[in-house]
Amino acid sequence: MLKKWMFTFVLLLVLPLSVVAQDIPERPTTAGFVFDYQNVIDDAVEAEINEIAKRLQEEGKMELMIVTVPTIGELEPYEYGMKFFREWGIGDAEKDNGMLIYITTDMGEGNNVVRISTGYGMEGSYPDSETQRLIQTYMKESLKSGDYTSAFANVVEAIRVKEDIDYTWENDGAVIEEMSENTEESEETLFEKITGIFFTIIGILFFLIMAGVALLIAYVVLEGIFRRLQGLFYWIFEAIFRKDIRSKGYIKYLENKKQEQKKNKARKASGLYYDNHYDSSNSSDSYSYGSGDSGGGGSDDRF
């Protein structure tokens, strides 16, 4: 009787953990790159996505996996993606060039997950900003409307264009072709916008710097001219009227300035002059920063 109660107690402890730790599907034994467990991708388009993924692998670009599942349970999207990478071994062992794109279908509107996970070797070409762009530009709207086929076809086409893989779609040709053209145009437009903004900022900074330099030069020149005219006026007035009209304060200021200049010369000559200049290369307060590994990356969103 005691053993029965102990077994029941242990079962109650383990059962919640098994619910929270959502299992992923077992590693497939059949060849392929698309595993539509929820049967939401059109079969003909699925076959073409498989073909593109095959060519990506054959040309050493990446190992792309497409998966649809009902839910990720209580796991975070990145944790669920990591489980796939570990248990399926996605990507070449040496290149670590795996990419996983998965979605959930049964977590409810606004809670379903789309995630793109990448291996270490993909972070150069597909940093988090790029994987987020792929989701937002090519998948999000189609997923929200329930068009899973277009979502996967569009993102795979964007990857095909980026990786320069030769392939012509047979199914949904007009949609894919239009998307492909928009992909190239959007990339060009984005580059043009960034370039335009960059040169605009550079132009503004250059104008401000030149305006500042011009104002400084004008100030120095005008101040010198004013001082000379002022001195000339004082000299003429004193020569005519035999009287120095300069204020006592101004005269004292000139005398103090001359004395300070003499003191500075004397200090420099004796080596006691203090130059208040900070040299960062000789400072003991400078910092050196290290860098670390972030591991595989990726991005996700809800729909």
TrEMBL record:
Residue intervals passing through the bilayer: 197-222
Source species, domain of life: Bacteria
A UniProt-annotated Pfam family: TPM_phosphatase
All residue ranges annotated as the TPM domain in the record: 34-160
Record's compositionally biased regions (Low complexity): 278-291
Signal sequence annotation: 1-21
Gly residues composition bias: residue spans: 292-303
Keyword field: Membrane, Signal, Transmembrane, Transmembrane helix
Chain positions covered by the region annotation Disordered: 278-303
PANTHER family: UPF0603 PROTEIN YGCG
Protein name: TPM domain-containing protein
Species per Swiss-Prot/TrEMBL record: Ureibacillus endophyticus
